[in-house]
């Protein structure tokens, strides 16, 4: 099975780009951030303060059933204890909770196991923070997709506004910086580019240009493997 790892910070466009590329290649797309988000949502709904009480959060997650399914049009759906929570995991509160919960090693181990199982079943494009470094260190292609914090905050604010959630640019930028710091300084499987990853900066690139660049990079790397 072919494994393509796409890692990078929040708001770099990983999910939208990866989804489009997976469709063009006929691979299964796995958004691993959605799993951390579902785990965080479960704790928030269960009134567990993830930051203050990581032990209770870890225990709660150990009982959760987190599952990925696909709708007829191929988009990813995320289920928490058999309930489809896809539309509830993109709020700023869940974003912060997901970043906090992703620091807890027991939570990561549980979710990584599910990710490895999915990756061994199909040709996949998997996006996250630690796919090329930890989940699949032997991935066929590793891409580190990034952009400046300002560019990422602008895109995220636009996305939130389109969903009817209004927030200031400064708020979004602050959230972004908080999550960047959290994600790249945690002890276990932090966000760092894999040594053998290809870095793609998407500042100033349109969505279509980013998709094309990622697609060309994957094809070139896979051809190198075959030769
Ligand atoms: O990609 P995202 O913004 O939906 O991810 C939400 C949070 O989950 C992010 O702050 C970091 C964490 N995460 C992680 O630690 N490892 C992954 N493979 C994916 C996401």
Q: Can you give me a brief rundown of this structure?
A:
By secondary structure, the chain is α/β, with parallel strands linked by helices. It has 9 helices and 8 strands.
Features:
227 residues, alpha/beta, 5-stranded parallel beta sheet, binds 2'-deoxycytidine-5'-monophosphate
Structural features, described:
This protein is an alpha/beta fold and 227 residues long. Helix content is 52%, strand content 16%. The strands form two sheets. The protein has a five-stranded parallel beta sheet, with helices on both faces. A hairpin with a 2-residue loop joins strand 4 (76-80) and strand 5. The protein is globular, with a radius of gyration of 17 Å. The mean pLDDT is 94. Bound molecules: 2'-deoxycytidine-5'-monophosphate. Residues 10, 32-33, 36-37, 98-99, 102, 128-130, 179, 183 line the site of 2'-deoxycytidine-5'-monophosphate (DC). 2'-deoxycytidine-5'-monophosphate binds next to helix 2, helix 4 and helix 8.
């Amino acid at each position: 099975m072919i494994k393509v790892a796409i890692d990078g910070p929040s708001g770099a466009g990983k999910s939208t780009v990866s989804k489009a590329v997976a469709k063009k290649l006929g691979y299964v797309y796995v958004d691993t951030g959605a799993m951390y988000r579902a785990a965080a949502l479960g704790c928030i709904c269960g009134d567990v303060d993830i930051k203050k009480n990581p032990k209770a959060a870890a225990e709660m997650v150990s009982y959760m059933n987190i599952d990925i399914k696909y709708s007829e049009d191929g988009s990813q759906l995320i289920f928490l204890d058999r309930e489809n929570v896809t539309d509830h995991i993109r709020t700023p509160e869940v974003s912060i909770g997901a970043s906090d919960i992703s620091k807890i090693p027991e939570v990561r181990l549980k979710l990584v196991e599910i990710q490895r199982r999915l990756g061994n079943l199909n040709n996949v494009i998997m996006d996250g923070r630690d796919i090329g470094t930890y989940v699949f260190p032997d991935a066929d292609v590793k891409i580190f997709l990034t952009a400046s914090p300002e560019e990422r905050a602008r895109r995220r604010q636009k996305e939130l506004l389109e969903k009817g959630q209004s927030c200031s640019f400064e708020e979004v930028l602050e959230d972004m910086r908080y999550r960047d710091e959290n994600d790249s300084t945690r002890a276990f499987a932090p966000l760092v580019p894999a040594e053998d990853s290809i870095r793609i900066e998407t500042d100033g690139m349109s969505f279509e240009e980013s998709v094309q660049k990622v697609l060309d990079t994957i094809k070139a790397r896979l051809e190198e493997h075959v030769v």
